[in-house]
UniProtKB/TrEMBL annotation, chain A:
Residues 97-145 form the RNA polymerase sigma factor 70 region 4 type domain. The keyword DNA-binding applies. This is RNA polymerase subunit sigma-70. One of its GO terms (biological process) is DNA-templated transcription initiation. It comes from Portibacter lacus. Belongs to the sigma-70 factor family. ECF subfamily.
Automatic annotation (TrEMBL), chain B:
InterPro entries: Beta-barrel_OMP_2. It comes from Portibacter lacus. This is Outer membrane protein beta-barrel domain-containing protein. The chain crosses the membrane at residues 42-59. Residues 260-433 form the Outer membrane protein beta-barrel domain. Keywords: Membrane, Transmembrane, Transmembrane helix. Pfam families: OMP_b-brl_2 (PF13568).
Length: 176, 460
């Protein structure tokens, strides 16, 4: 079971916490919790969903313990981000860089909404906040995302332009 | 979700991070060593207990069979010895009594005859001669009167003699009666089974009105359960254990239920929302023992000489009639009966959670009886011995009873991968299983109570 599900669970941990070493600790603690609470699995949902939920909860719990679970004021969220994150191309490296700069709670909301597919009600219940707070958090986080990244089509054109420039410079150097 | 969000979502979902699983497992293994050992130990314990239970059961059955054989021998020998002793001693006693009575009677008859005859003769001759010598002139006058007197005296004397004569007749009658008793005693052995048959017929008639008693089973089930990874399928490898059967519907109320055994091989398919459908074979074995020990008083009748009549001439005459026969003997019967039945059972179960540990399930379904038979020992009155029997369709009941609806409920307490289960079920035959009125009746319905464990290999 550990062999079968650990990769997926580790990916989840890595998305929710910042460094991989801490993510490993989260995964290990998650498995221990799963083993000791097998009797609480009610067979109502899928097994995979249950162990994923246990893992996300464990990540949240460990972030709290480590003091990394801090609520940043929404008004000051822009300060947390560098000024040069705007107009990023949507690539894995840039997405990770952007998420790393986000406060934990925003990072959690973005993951819950974009990856897990939770709605406001579920996010509110999970983070133990009101539904209106959940809406504010998510809309703010999504606005930051939209501001930071170019539209996918634009990103492609920018990317193509950059590639052309590099090719031209190489070609010129070669002629000279 | 717009294009930008969808693109970011795809990137996030597609992210892969390398993980050293060996290091992860080694870190976790330290926290869970005892649990693993316990799991395997419990499984081995289960796998050991089941064959032990079955082995023990069949061993005790084997011992019981041997004991039964000994009982048969002892019973047969005891019956024969008792009869030989009883008949021999009875005949010897009767012969002694008859001989003694005969000797006394013969002596008394001879004495009485001699004595009475002498008295009558001397009295008659002396009275007649004396009157002729001393009172001759008046003889002619009073001849008729004297003759009348003589006749009267003789008549009176004869009347005195009659009691002695009747006592002789009575002694002769007693002798005849004693001889007839002797002949009755010699034929007693052949008459015993006749009287027994009559008694049993009466018993069968009284049993016709008797309702079969409650059949209650108490099972101690061990039901290890295998679950596959997707949590959909599980297999109950074996559900078995000791069963106490209190069914008491035999020839006498003394037929008691003994231990039994129940096994099943079922496949469960777990549907959504805690519905489970299961199907498989169920084997039931029930045992009864009939012990009949004690003094038996048999009352019957036989044709024979019942009385002696004496006519006016003192001649005795035997009258044919009916003699009541009473015999008392010791009976020691010990027999054993085993009922085997195979059912194919399908049922649907719905579970309700009371809490994280407690669960209640209700189930309903149908069982199809594939085969039922009874084996054991019976008692043959004619041969006064036991015989092994196996029921067939004509003798006792149907070997295939057809469909049996089943309803049941269970209460479970979950302990990690193990569940403690207390369950009850009730099933009944749609068509009566008994084919005719027999001394041995099988109840048409069956109530079961099971207490056991259920083990989940791959998580509950």
């Amino acid at each position: 079971m550990v062999e079968m599900y650990s990769d997926d669970l580790f990916n989840i941990c890595c998305r929710y916490v910042q460094d991989q070493s801490f993510a490993k600790d989260c995964l290990q603690e998650s498995w221990i919790q799963i083993f000791w609470n097998l009797d609480k699995y009610k067979e109502e949902g899928k097994w995979e969903s249950w162990i994923k939920m246990v893992t996300i909860n464990k990540c949240k719990e460990m972030l709290r313990k480590e003091g990394k679970w801090k609520v940043s004021a929404i008004d000051h969220i822009d300060e947390c981000l560098d000024s040069n994150v705007e107009d990023l191309i949507i690539e894995e490296e840039n997405v990770n860089m952007f998420l790393d700069k986000l406060p934990q709670r925003y990072r959690m909301v973005v993951n819950l909404y974009l990856v897990e597919g939770y709605n406001h009600k579920e996010i509110a219940a999970f983070l133990e906040i009101t539904e209106s707070s959940s809406r504010s958090l998510l809309s703010r986080a999504l606005k930051l995302l939209k501001d930071a990244f170019k539209e996918p089509d634009q990103s492609e054109s920018i990317k193509n332009t950059q590639v052309k420039r590099i090719r031209n410079s190489i070609y010129k150097k070669a002629i000279i | 979700m717009d294009k930008k969000e969808r693109k970011i979502s795809e990137i996030l979902k597609g992210q892969k991070f390398d993980l050293d699983k060996d290091a992860l497992w080694s870190g976790m293994a330290d926290t869970l060593p005892k649990q693993e050992r316990k799991r395997r130990g419990f499984l081995w314990l289960l796998l050991l207990v089941i064959p032990l239970a079955y082995g023990g059961f069949y061993w005790t059955n084997l011992v019981a069979d041997q004991h039964d054989n000994e009982d048969i021998f002892i019973a047969e020998k005891g019956l024969s010895d008792a009869r030989i002793d009883r008949n021999t001693k009875g005949i010897e006693t009767k012969v002694d009594q008859i001989t003694e009575i005969y000797a006394q009677t013969i002596g008394e008859v001879e004495n009485d005859k001699d004595l009475d005859y002498q008295e009558v003769t001397s009295y008659t001759s002396s009275s007649t001669q004396g009157r002729r010598n001393t009172e001759l002139p008046t003889i002619n006058q009073s001849v008729s009167e004297i003759e009348n007197n003589i006749n009267t005296s003789v008549s009176t004397e004869f009347q005195n003699i009659n009691p002695a004569s009747s006592s002789i007749n009575q002694n002769e009658n007693a002798l005849i009666k004693t001889e007839s008793d002797l002949s009755e005693w010699t034929t007693r052995n052949q008459l015993d089974f006749v009287t027994l048959e009559k008694i049993d017929i009466n018993l069968s008639e009284s049993l016709e009105d008797r309702e079969p008693n409650l059949q209650l089973e108490l099972d101690a089930h061990l039901t290890p359960t295998l679950c596959c990874v997707d949590q959909k399928w599980s297999v109950i490898l074996l559900g078995g254990g000791l069963k106490s059967n209190s069914k008491v519907t035999g020839i006498e109320d003394r037929e008691t239920g003994l231990y039994g055994i129940a096994s099943s091989v079922k496949v469960n398919y777990h549907l959504e929302k805690r519905w489970t459908i299961s199907g498989g074979l169920v084997y039931n074995q029930l045992n009864t023992r009939y012990i009949d020990q004690g003094e038996v008083r048999e009352i019957g009748s036989q044709p024979g000489i019942s009385q002696i009549n004496i006519d006016a001439l003192g001649v005795s005459k035997a009258v044919q009639g009916v003699v009541e026969e009473v015999s008392i003997w010791k009976r020691d019967i010990n027999w054993h009966r085993t009922q085997h039945s195979f059912d194919f059972q399908v049922q649907l179960q719905k579970d309700f959670l009371l809490s994280s540990r407690w669960k209640v399930g209700v189930a309903g379904g149908i069982a199809y009886n594939l085969y039922t038979t009874t084996k054991g020992y019976g008692y043959d009155h004619e041969s006064s011995g036991f015989y092994k029997f196996e029921s067939d369709e004509e003798q006792n009941y149907k070997m295939n009873a057809g469909l049996k609806p089943v309803v049941g409920a269970e209460l479970c307490y979950g302990l990690r991968n193990v569940e403690l289960v207390l369950s009850a079920n009730y099933k009944w035959n749609l068509s009566p299983i008994n084919t005719q009125i027999e001394n041995y009746q099988i109840k048409n319905s069956q109530t079961g109570i099971q207490l056991g464990t259920r083990y989940y290999l791959n998580g509950n």
